[in-house]
Amino acid sequence: MPKRKKTKIVATLGPASGSRETIKEMIAQGVDVFRINFSHANYEDVKERIAIIRDLSEKHGYNTSILADLQGPKLRVGIMSEDVIVEPGDQIKFCTGKEFKGTSKKVYMNYENFPRDVKAGERILLDDGKLIFEVVESDGKQEVTAKVIQGGPLKSKKGVNLPNTDISLPALTEKDVNDAIFAIGQEVDWIALSFVRHSQDLMDLQAIINEHSEHKIPIIAKIEKPEAVANIDKIVAYCDGLMVARGDLGVEVPAQEVPLIQKQLVLRAKKARIPVIIATQMMETMITSLTPTRAEVNDVANSVMDGADAVMLSGETSVGKYPVQVIQQMTKIIKSVEDSPLINVPEEPPHIRTKRYITKSVCYHASHMANEIEAKAICTLTNSGYTAFQISAWRPASHILVFTSNKRILTQLNLLWGVKAFFYDKFVSTDDTVEDVNQIAKDKKFVKKGDMLINLAAMPITDKGMVNTLRVSLIE
Questions:
Q1: Which residues form the Pyruvate kinase C-terminal domain (predicted)?
Q2: Residue 240: which of 415, 120, 422, 113 has the closest Cα?
């Protein structure tokens, strides 16, 4: 039986991955989730790509998931005149108001409240921290004077990070609200919110989803600011998944602190039993090269060994030369490390007695029991997907097969570690249903004669209530 990977791959769509052929090939090589980056998205293109992905899923039995990633408050400088270079010690003014062409003395800043928010002594980082400025003074209205700490070429439209400034911008800009409404209309599976700082940011997005959709669309909080790391417990309570966005995070906090933050965030997500995606620069050199560096191979492997549910590609698949080969390489790395006994995820039993305590407990014991009796699969029937999240987080060695009559969650669950979902809508007596799903597991070659399998169900089965039954089957 060919080895199936359990860690999921998220690939960003872009000009390099636009054709039906490429998308099909990428899914065949291991893509589980496609990310739409709304920083560079044209609605017509997006509609077209979503249609292709759904059509391929329909025809070939994939459940490829679609993640809409909102840009968030992206601060940028304006257009610059030719070849501006700033030297350490120089002074430069950042001006808001009407856009103009920047020089080495004066640049345009797209963020209106900038002069009101910054204070003397705070840092301004540009172009992923390649340039560093320190605020000398602000007139509080339109002009901020800064001195150059680390110089270099100052290019047009480059992103600005303000690691020490308390920014008054909401995480959801007007553009994000429009993009979110569009994405909800396209019935995407997940929505990611950039530059989350407080739980309120997530509540605001939740309100938009509630207003425009009858279905639940789960939210992923992108952790890329120091405030988010500090507020992680509150953030986890209001989101359905985390993304460790190491690009901006590595600019906002010293780069050497990111590896431990990554481990801390993965652990936090696992304890909350929500999925976590590791993102940014994973296979960066493969944008232009056919082979990743040793360090990149190590990085992907370590992220899997930290316990990530998914690893993500950005430029590699959106604008890179080798969108299919990069997936092949990533799949190889994942398969070679993900079954290692060196991987530890938190396995404490659930103890907070919420109304879902019974379900959690059944899932916890199912995962442990599966490992003990070496069951080849855990099959669960679910209407909300809740049991899939729970079982996945306990990382059993067995396959996690989820059967649901809710078409919306089929593709949603594709982001979760180890989960494979099937459409199933014959909820008859328990015995018949269990036999049915076991037969499907056998037909799809997840189990063979003589294998043990664990079934989870809600009795009575026709009520589609909370899971309350665990049963061990032997495949005949």
A1: 361-472
A2: 415
pLDDT of residue 361: 92
**Is 222 a catalytic site residue?**
yes
pLDDT of 1 reads 59
Q: Is the dihedral of CA 428, 431, 434, 438 positive or negative?
A: negative
Please name the fold of domain 85-161. Answer: M1 Pyruvate Kinase; Domain 3 (2.40.33)
**Token pair recorded at residue 70:** 């909102």
Q: What is the DSSP string of 407-473?
A: HHHHHHGGGSTTEEEEE------HHHHHHHHHHHHHHTTS--TT-EEEEEE-SSGGGT----EEEEE
Active-site residue, selected from the candidate residues 49, 197, 222, 268: 222
- 30 contacts 326 by C-beta, under 8 angstroms: no
CA of 250: how far to CAs of 105, 128, 259, in Å?
28, 8, 9
pLDDT in tens, 321-337: 999 999 999 999 999 99
| 74: annotated active-site residue | no
* Residue of 74, 76, 130, 155 marked catalytic: 76
Active-site residue, from 5, 6, 8, 35: 35
pTM higher than the cut 0.85: yes
Domain 8-72+171-337 CATH assignment equals 3.20.20.60: yes
**The CATH number, out of the four listed (2.40.30.160, 3.40.1380.20, 1.10.10.10, 3.90.1150.10), of the domain defined by the range 356-475:** 3.40.1380.20
Q: Which amino acid is at 366?
A: A
d(CA 176, CA 39): 9
Burial degree of 388 (CB within 10 A; 0-12, 13-18, 19+):
buried
What is the 8-class DSSP label of residue 284? G
Tokens of 286: 């493969």
- Band of residue 82 on the pLDDT scale cut at 50, 70, 90: confident
DSSP structure class, residue 244: E
Domain range summary for the chain, segments of one domain joined by +: 8-72+171-337, 85-161, 356-475
Q: Please pick, among 280, 380, 430, 433, the residue that the annotation labels catalytic.
A: 280
Q: Give 167-216 pLDDT, tens digit per residue.
A: 888 889 999 999 999 999 999 999 999 999 999 999 999 999 999 999 99
Six-digit token string for 55: 């059509």
Q: Which residue has the tokens 């600019």?
A: 251
